Every structure is written in C-alpha cells, then in structure tokens.
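Inverse folding, one chain.
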C-alpha cells in the first residue's frame, strides 16, 4: 500500500497516490521499472505473475518489475526489488525510459513511465510466491516466436503488454548490450 510517485511525461514529480487508486480506470502516470536478467547463455529469466495480482494475474512478464518508493532512487529501488522478488543480487545497466498505457479487462490499467534495466546472473533465482507463480529461462529467438503467437487456449494473452513493448525495443536497439554484459 505504499504510495506511487505520480509524474508527468517529462518525469517531473506531481505528487503521490495509493497504488490501487493509480491503477483504476485509465490509470494515472507513475514511475516504474522493468528488469531483464539474462544468464550466461543470453537466455532471459521470465516470471509468471502471481494469481494474487489484480492486473495480469498468471501472465508471463520480464524477470522483475515494480515501482520506486517515495524518495527512493532508482538505483536503490531496482536492487531492493530484485532481492524481494527473486532473491538475486547483480549489477544492472539502465537502457531506456518510455511511457505506456495498457488496460486489463475492466479491472484497471497500467500507465507508467518505465525505466528498463538489464543484468546478468547465473545464480538460482528464488521466487517470492506472493509475487511470482513460476520462473523459467527462454532463449531470444524462442521468445520472439512466443510473443508473435501470444494467445492462450482461452483467447487470453499469455504475456504482459510491457514485456512485448520492452522486448521488441531491446531486440531492435540494445541486443548488443545484452550480449556484452
């Protein structure tokens, strides 16, 4: 129930608001981050979101994503959350920041100014079951294929909208940085 940092498109702080209220309706723009952890084979660690999540439960997403706390620097927030969700410690590299908005059924929306980070680790991740239902590694070409075919047996998407956006950009603009981690 920590308040999220409300921002404008230029990342200027506008205030703070309860997490759930920020995700109602079309959502209010707030700071967020996404982390992509690769092993030494350049396979991406994916997480399947907990069924307890109100938005996109049971959906596959990138390794870790969350929000910085009020007054918390991104450099501290990304490492804190990586420990909390996956019990991992590794160096992270900032890649880019982008704004997106996505609605989940009639439940609510994400509207985030999201900073994207990459890192490398061959340590075994230990999922926080309150946050993560399942973990798996996937190769880049396989993930390209999976995201292009993203429809489950019930017609629901299997992968989060932010994963799709971020992965396309990583593959198109930043893959050389992944390989050089």
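Residues assigned per position:
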């Amino acid at each position: 129930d920590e308040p999220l940092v409300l921002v404008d498109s230029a990342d200027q702080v506008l205030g703070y608001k309860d997490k759930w209220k920020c995700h109602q309706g079309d959502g209010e723009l707030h700071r967020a981050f996404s982390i992509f952890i690769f092993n030494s084979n350049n396979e991406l660690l994916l997480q399947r979101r907990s069924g307890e999540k109100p938005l996109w439960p049971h959906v596959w997403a990138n390794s870790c994503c969350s929000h910085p706390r009020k007054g918390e620097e991104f450099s501290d927030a990304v490492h804190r959350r990586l420990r909390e969700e996956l019990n991992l410690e590794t160096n992270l590299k900032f890649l880019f920041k982008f704004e997106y908005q996505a609605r989940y059924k009639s439940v609510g929306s994400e509207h985030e100014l999201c900073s994207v980070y990459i890192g490398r680790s061959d340590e075994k991740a230990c999922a926080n079951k309150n946050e993560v239902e399942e973990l798996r590694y996937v190769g880049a070409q396989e993930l390209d294929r999976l995201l292009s075919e993203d429809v489950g047996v019930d017609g629901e998407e299997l992968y989060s909208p932010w994963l799709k956006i971020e992965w396309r950009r990583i593959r198109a603009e930043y893959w050389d940085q992944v390989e050089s981690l």
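The radius of gyration is 15 Å. The chain has a mean pLDDT of 95.
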